[in-house]
Amino acid sequence: MRVLLIKFLKGKFQDIERLESFPTSILLSYLFERTVMLLRGLLLFRKFCFVGKSVRFKCTSRIKLGRFATIHDNCYIDASSLQGILIEDYCTIGRNNYLRTGNLSSCNGYFIMRSRSSSNNNCFFGATSGIKIGQNVLIGPNVTIITERHCISDTHKTIKEQGVEEAPVIIEDNAWIGASAIILGGTIISNKAVVGAGSLVTKPVKEGEIVVGNPARVMRTRGN
Fold first, then answer.
1. Of 10, 117, 174, 186, most Cβ neighbours within 10 A?
2. pTM tops 0.85
3. Do residues 106 and 145 both lie within one domain?
């Protein structure tokens, strides 16, 4: 039985030696959890995708999940916009993620995550002006991406009365966003770029650049 379990899980975990080091009880527990998540995905989306416990979906008809995409426990996924949400094949949304594409005053948002990208736990995606994430992107825990900001230029009005400015965020293929980074609207994180943990990104990041700090500054370029 143990041999069959390892062969079954080998497709997901390439390191067969690491799998063999786990006791059978842990392998069975993992398999049971994934089976339950798969059943939820089949019931909700009629696709081979995985949905964790206590996940709340809003406007499910505007949410498209690819094959073997995973939404982990306690996420809030709100597709209250015209374009909705697209999460492609083999993507992962970590536990306790909050994702919103629209509200009563804004319906033009969207969220696109291309294949094999992932977000870690406790991320916030305010996608009311649009967030597009490329392929093979890694997003660390506690990352915040916000596509709108309050207008503050008129001191004779309250900040609340002045409304907001909106601009999308684009993260291109193979980028890595470190833990607790904050990315503001109008930012493009280019291909193979790296954003250091805790950085505040307000300007575009060029291909292969490594940026760190608040505000984020270029430390070096990968490969140099």
1. 117
2. yes
3. yes
